[in-house]
């Protein structure tokens, strides 16, 4: 059985793989484009609101507010957007890892169609937003503790990410809908917790979704081999 540290180490070692680099480039560009479009739209919205309120220099103020809102939104929503985008390229990451380490599994995998990937991506993103919104009031109450809010959001997203990352791999190999997921809750939580922590680190957060998908591939296949 591959431990999480070993899975992460193998994932880091494969970052130079052309297939992985291709996914990194595409996912980062699309994620950046989403936030740029968000900022562009917000600038028009703020400018219109300021002009409606009769404030002068509305254009400059609107642009400044849009930049600030986009930066705050990027900090709060990056993990949701990045993982949503990765859903469309996850198969490429999983296939690259399988081709190098699990060639037999690679030949037995099924490809997920675009609509299935879209459905999975939208469902996981909405679930993540809903759970985080439910946790928000408790997070506000924990602000007085200094660290409680951060720990709560980390735990919530560790739970969510572990499941999503497992499914990126497992759904390609699941034989029927009744098959039990290979990773238990503990393993999923540890995987999700590691990726959630990476998402909080500048620059590493750009690699975290791909590293998570690659690590999940190692964990799922080693666990499936153990259970077989």
Automatic annotation (TrEMBL):
Keyword check for Nucleotidyltransferase: no
One Pfam short name: EI24
Transmembrane helix in keyword set: yes
Places the protein is found: Membrane
Coiled coil: none
Membrane topology summary: Multi-pass membrane protein
InterPro entries: CysZ/EI24
Keywords from the UniProt entry: Membrane, Transmembrane, Transmembrane helix
Main location as per UniProt: membrane
Membrane-spanning ranges: 20-42, 62-86, 128-156, 189-214
Protein name: Cysteine biosynthesis protein CysZ
């Amino acid at each position: 059985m591959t431990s999480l540290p070993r899975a992460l180490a193998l994932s880091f070692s494969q970052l130079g793989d052309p297939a992985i680099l291709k996914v990194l480039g595409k996912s980062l560009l699309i994620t950046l484009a989403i936030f740029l479009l968000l900022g562009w739209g917000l600038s028009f919205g703020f400018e219109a609101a300021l002009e409606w309120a009769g404030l002068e220099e509305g254009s400059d103020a609107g642009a400044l507010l849009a930049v600030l809102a986009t930066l705050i939104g990027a900090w709060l929503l990056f993990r949701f957007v990045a993982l949503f985008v990765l859903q469309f390229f996850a198969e490429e990451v999983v296939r690259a890892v399988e081709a190098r380490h699990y060639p037999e599994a690679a030949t037995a995998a099924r490809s997920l169609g675009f609509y299935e990937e879209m459905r999975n991506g939208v469902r996981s993103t909405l679930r993540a937003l809903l759970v985080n919104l439910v946790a928000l009031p408790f997070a506000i109450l924990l602000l007085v503790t200094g660290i409680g809010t951060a720990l709560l959001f980390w735990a919530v997203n560790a739970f969510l990410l572990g499941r999503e990352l497992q499914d990126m791999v497992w759904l390609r190999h699941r034989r029927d809908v009744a098959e039990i997921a290979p990773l238990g809750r503990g393993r999923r939580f540890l995987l999700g917790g590691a990726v959630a922590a990476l998402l909080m680190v500048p620059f590493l957060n750009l690699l975290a979704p791909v590293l998570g998908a690659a690590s999940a591939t190692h964990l799922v296949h080693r666990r499936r081999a153990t259970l077989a």
